[in-house]
Amino acid sequence: MTQETILHQADQQRFVLSIAGHDAVLEYQRQGEKIDFVRTFVPDELRGQGVAGRLVRHGLEWAKSQQLTISASCWYVQKYL
User: Fold this and answer.
1) Of 75, 77, 80, 67, which Cα lies nearest the Cα of 32?
2) Once rounded to an integer, what is the mean pLDDT over residues 10-14?
3) Do residues 80 and 56 touch, judged by C-beta distance below 8 A?
4) Is the pLDDT of residue 4 over 80?
């Protein structure tokens, strides 16, 4: 099994998990000390494997470590708050 790495692309305000040539994405908007998770996207080829959940947990852990005020416009992320 290969090690999966979630990349934080801060300049694009997103986290990306690439598996088998497909990218799953968690997008956010940050203003100062506030962060809003706005979109989760998982391509059809990766659905049903827990990919979105891994991305969301990673993004929330990062935001908490930065002591940001967290909100979620994305319905999927709201389930984790």
Assistant:
1) 67
2) 98
3) yes
4) no
